[in-house]
Amino acid sequence: MADRLAHGAGRAARRVGYEHEVFRPDGPEPPLDPARLVLRAHVAFVLPGGSVGAPSPLGNPYRQAWADWSYLRVGDYLAGPEGVAFIAAIEPPKPMLVVMANATATLVRPAAPVATGLNPYGAILPQTETVLMAGFPASLLVGGMGDRTKVGLPDDSRIPGFVGLVPAVAGVVPAVADLLVNERDERFAIASVERVGGVWRLSLIQAVS
User: Fold this and answer.
1) Residue 74 near residue 195, CB atoms below 8 Å
2) Of 192, 209, 198, 208, residue with least CA distance to 87
């Protein structure tokens, strides 16, 4: 039954979807490297509720995806005419759940102090950071809780908060105080971490100078 459902979903995708390249991460290195291309498959994206009668809502990265999921896995990337998405859940007989990417994320871990007690310099140095995962397409949207500026005056604006969604990669566990760096070299401090299925949901605070 599961095979028949997957085959039917694939037939529907060939009718109304587009051909996508499927990339399969095998570690913390950039997943869209041509060496990680595993197959090409037709995929059709629809709104989270299943509708095709309205445009995609702004600020909602989730989509249903119809495809022959027999050959796909949670965490795979789908790259096609509509953009890049990663698979968040495969739960037959329901369609797949994917996350549309709008950023490229690298997770880094700042180095701990080199010695106990007083240290000569306490700021984060990029050359001492450990890269946890690099070059992963991800969702990065305004949301969650921000923080006050460094001055902290009552009429000062707040530092913006963001919500990041990245695929759960084997051997990589983000932690509070890790940093997310996007393709524009903007840096975000992780304030909370939650794993939901095959996705790490990160509450972020943008670092401002």
Assistant:
1) no
2) 198
Element (H, E) at 23: strand 18-23
Burial class (CB in 10 A: 0-12, 13-18, 19+), 157: exposed
Strand-pairing partners, residue 131, are 108
pTM of the model: 0.85
CA 1 vs CA 26, 81, 92: distances in Å: 30, 31, 10
Encoding tokens for residue 187? 């840096």
- Taking the C-alpha atoms of residue 132 and residue 95, their distance in angstroms, rounded to an integer, is 31
CA distance 44 to 14: 8
- CB-based contact 128:68 (threshold 8 Å): no
> Which of these, 134, 129, 109, lies nearest to 25 by C-alpha position?
134
pLDDT tens digits for range 39-81: 999 999 988 876 666 677 778 999 999 899 888 999 999 999 9
- Confirm if 137 and 25 have CB atoms less than 8 A apart: no
Q: Residue 10: enclosing H or E segment and its boundaries?
A: helix 2-16
Beta bridge partners of 106: 181
